[in-house]
Amino acid sequence: MSPDKLVMMANQIGAFFASQGPGGVKGVADHIKSFWDPRMRAGILDHLNKGGEGLSPIVVQALENLKPKP
């Protein structure tokens, strides 16, 4: 899937969970972890690692939580 499509989808999820207040970041992370195919998760994390152009702040925070721990 193209990075543009992944960004669009992630930002839609972020917009939904933004209305949840402080728990929104966790909601985005949980949704992506639970419902996105591993290839999609890898693709969006790769996009984030390359600068994350176009990602909303809530999505960036959520994806930072999904990065593999060293």
TrEMBL record:
The source's superkingdom equals Bacteria
Protein name, as recorded:
Formate dehydrogenase
Q: Which organism is it from?
A: Niveispirillum cyanobacteriorum
